[in-house]
Write a structure and sequence with these properties.
Number of strands: 8
Number of domains: 1
CATH architecture: Beta Barrel
Structural class: alpha+beta
Strand content: 15-25%
Radius of gyration: 16 Å
CATH class: Mainly Beta
Largest sheet: 8 strands, mixed
Strand order of the largest sheet: 3-2-1-8-4-5-6-7
CATH superfamily: L,D-transpeptidase catalytic domain-like
């Protein structure tokens, strides 16, 4: 295993590591449907797989394709870099009255993000969300979701956003891994 991957794995908390290992076992876990009454207790996002995983009691119950910021590689460092942050955060509130079809706020920046950005004289940015398509553009989702198009958010189709919206009660932990 390359050193860079080992370092990334070493930074993950145990629950995140276990989920990543489960996901590596194959697609069977990712195809399990979410039952209408299921609520999840953890959300995992893999940037390299372009997937959002809904997790309940340590089991992936749904996997959904996502798009990221236009410059997806690496951790978000500053406002305008079009990167999606990496790390452990909280989904802390829902917004039905958004520029996009529903949105759920990610608690970026955390204290560490703030400290690092400020030490470099940068504004870390904020308002990172999981959201659906831009209002009025849902019909283009099959095209937009093929590219990374956000300014750093995590985008889903509106149908997939409805699944996440129903399954998530805030606050809930989210981990975004490379």
């Amino acid at each position: 295993m390359p050193i860079a991957i080992r370092k990334r794995i070493n930074r993950l908390q145990l629950p995140g590591l276990l989920i990543v290992l489960l996901l590596a076992q194959g697609p069977a876990l990712a195809s399990d449907p979410v039952l209408s009454s299921d609520k999840v207790d953890y959300v995992l996002v893999s940037k390299s797989k372009a997937r959002l995983y809904l997790v309940s009691n340590g089991k992936v119950i749904r996997s959904l394709p996502v798009a990221f910021g236009r410059n997806p590689y690496g951790h978000k460092e500053k406002r305008g870099d079009q990167r999606t942050p990496e790390g452990r955060y909280q989904l802390d509130y829902k917004n039905e009255d958004s520029e996009f079809y529903k949105s759920i706020h990610i608690s970026y920046p955390n204290d560490q993000d703030e400290r690092i950005a400020r030490s470099k004289g940068l504004d870390p940015g904020d308002m990172i969300m999981i959201h659906g398509q831009k209002n009025g553009y849902a019909q283009y989702a099959r095209f937009t979701q093929r590219e990374n198009w956000t300014d750093g958010c995590i985008a889903l189709t509106n149908e997939d956003m409805d699944i996440v919206w129903s399954a998530v009660e805030v606050p809930i932990p989210i981990e975004i891994v490379p």
